[in-house]
């Protein structure tokens, strides 16, 4: 719905992919392109995006824990992020660019860790319910840009990176399961996803990102 103050409709775009797929620079470029169109941007990330959720991020990336604790902390962070950052920004009419969202939970906790997908779906329904609206309306991204890259190639890119966190330190098989789970998420909701072949020169990837946003009419 368009807001009374800006006349613009809030848009939520998430960015996904296995570690090393190279989404960060494109998020920044897209933010600039949208600002040039007069849009107001909220740039944020998960886990994180609020003071509380950033504390949970530190725990998630560095402290040992079991799979259920991990899943619950991810959703606890998301709840705070939605309530205090994302929903208010969308209500103002912002374009919210979110570096990872719930698809990452299905990919990493579901695919990677093997955590129960039904439990994740239940948490998704509870955490992402949009208050004040009719029952069963769940907040999902309007567009999910998925940087698809073979885990073998991502591993080479990550090898030069800084000290790995708890996820980046996982073996290749973990990322194969994560990548497969992203594919399943796309198949379950193909209209929401733009799959980008991330095994191309950066300029080609950027072109594909722009095309995905243009196809929705959000860039000329
Ligand atoms: P990432 O987004 O890759 O940030 P950076 O580029 O700074 O490393 O790191 C976040 C990590 O958290 C990533 O390895 C995926 C993981 N993660 C989950 O396991 N579940 C989730 O629900 C989310 C949002 C992220």
Give structural notes.
- This protein is globular.
- The mean pLDDT is 95.
- The protein is built from eight helices and five strands, in the order βαβααβααβααβα.
- The chain has helices spanning 24-35, 51-62, 67-92, 102-112, 117-127, 151-159, 172-188, 202-215, and strands at residues 11-16, 41-45, 95-99, 143-148, 193-197.
- With 220 residues, it is an alpha/beta fold.
- Bound molecules: thymidine-5'-diphosphate.
- Residues 19, 24, 46-47, 74, 99-100, 104-105, 108-109, 167-168 line the site of thymidine-5'-diphosphate.
- The site of thymidine-5'-diphosphate has 13 residues, from helix 4.
Would you kindly provide a brief summary of this structure?
The chain is an alpha/beta fold and 220 residues long.
Give the helix/strand layout:
Elements (H helix, E strand, L loop, with lengths): L10 E6 L7 H12 L5 E5 L5 H12 L4 H26 L2 E5 L2 H11 L4 H11 L15 E6 L2 H9 L12 H17 L4 E5 L4 H14 L5
Parallel strand pairs: 1-3, 1-4, 2-3, 4-5
Helix pairs in contact: 2-3, 3-5, 4-7
Bound molecules: thymidine-5'-diphosphate (TYD).
Short descriptors:
single chain, 220 residues, alpha/beta, Rossmann fold, five-stranded parallel beta sheet, 8 helices, 51% helix, binds thymidine-5'-diphosphate
Residue share in helices? 40-55%
CATH top level class name: Alpha Beta
Shape label: globular
Mean residue pLDDT: 95
> What does the main sheet amount to?
5 strands, parallel
What is the third-level CATH name, the topology?
A: Rossmann fold
Distance between the termini: 21 Å
For the largest beta sheet, what order do the strands appear in spatially?
2-3-1-4-5
Which CATH architecture?
3-Layer(aba) Sandwich
